[in-house]
Amino acid sequence: MFFAIISDITTSIGVWVVLATLISVWSKNPEYAALKVLAFFVGMLLAYYIYSHVLFGFFPIYYFIRWGVIALVSPFCAYIFKYKNKTRK
């Protein structure tokens, strides 16, 4: 039951957008925001797919590449968000 709830929450892209936004808001400058968001998403991506492959023998390359592209685009979004937030003050 608990794992079903966690699974339902983490499959929503909104949760990941909120987490990336919080990471970028709490960063000192736009460069750190981009680096931290990239590290977060690459770490999550690698951890999930290594876990899936080792425990279940499941490694869908299509999804890995798709989420990898999203992870590589996320630092640009974090930089822009932090830069815009910084210039408003």
Structure overview:
The chain is an all-alpha fold. The protein is 87% helix and 0% strand. It has 4 helices and no strands. Helix 2 (13-25) runs antiparallel to helix 3 (30-56) and helix 3 packs antiparallel against helix 4. It is elongated, with a radius of gyration of 15 Å. The termini are far apart. The mean pLDDT is 88.
Secondary structure: helix percent: over 70%
The overall pLDDT, averaged over residues, is: 88
Instruction: Specify the overall morphology.
Output: elongated
Largest sheet: none
Distance between the termini: 44 Å
The count of strands amounts to 0
Q: What structural category do the secondary elements indicate? A: mainly alpha
Strand composition percent: under 5%
Low-confidence stretches: none
- Total number of helical segments? 4
* Rg calculated over all Cα atoms: 15 Å
Order of helices and strands: HHHH
List keywords for this structure.
4 helices; elongated; mainly alpha; 89 residues
